[in-house]
Amino acid sequence: MYFDYKEAVDYIAEIYKEADKPTVQEITDLSGNIDFDPVIEDEIARLFRVLLKSVKPKRVLEIGLSIGFSTVHIAKAIKSFGGNLITLEIDEEIAKVAKKNLEHFEVADIVEMRFGDAQELIKEFKSESFDVVFQDSSKRLYPVMFEECLRVLRKGGLFLIDDTLFPVMTAEDDWSASDKAIHRFNQLVADGKLESTILPIGEGCTVAVKL
């Protein structure tokens, strides 16, 4: 049976319109007139809330803060059982906006921001020190940071990655540097160190468990 994907997404969004708050649009409006890197879609935020409330992580690492949309949803999901979130961001100006958003939704108290180059910052963490790692930084860093992401993630921990279907959005001959980096990253994820799948929601979301 065939169904229209966009209609399905719209139908689901309507069903969950109250549960999804704050939405991407609400956070964008709250952030004012500022340029920022794209954030996850509402349906991915919903997926994350389900996964996080199921596994109840105590320590979560987010790589890529932007205006704090995913940060708000992750923090809201883990706050009730004592979870904490560390988020890495290179742009301290955009982080000021994110901080206001975190304060607005009353989750700033469980979020620690660290500033700088993510591929250097991640080296500061002990091995297997996080229950969940969420990668949403510069796409060129995805394959570069793969081993470090696995190192800091405990066995059985969740590895969540956004934008992993970039390569199918254009013909292979027209792949950008980001497309090529994501394709290489997807190959690394599938090499046996993780149990994983790519979900065709948003621009692609990979859900993986470290073996």
Task: Give descriptors for this structure.
single chain, 211 residues, alpha/beta, Rossmann fold, 41% helix
| CATH H-level superfamily | Vaccinia Virus protein VP39
**Rg, please?**
17 Å
Low-confidence runs of at least 5 consecutive residues: none
Structural class of the secondary structure composition?
alpha/beta
Measured between the Cα atoms of the first and last residue, the distance is: 35 Å
Number of domains: 1
Query: For the record, what CATH class applies?
Result: Alpha Beta
What is the count of DSSP helices, taking H or I runs of 4+ residues?
Answer: 8
Biggest sheet statistics? 7 strands, mixed
| CATH hierarchy: architecture | 3-Layer(aba) Sandwich
User: Which fold name is given in CATH as the topology?
Assistant: Rossmann fold
Proportion in β-strands? 15-25%
- Major sheet: arrangement of strands: 3-2-1-4-5-7-6
Helix content: 40-55%
Overall shape: it is globular
How many β-strand runs? 7
How would you state the average pLDDT, rounded?
Answer: 93
Could you state the oligomeric state of the chains shown?
A: single chain
Order of helices and strands: HHHEHEHEHEHEHEE
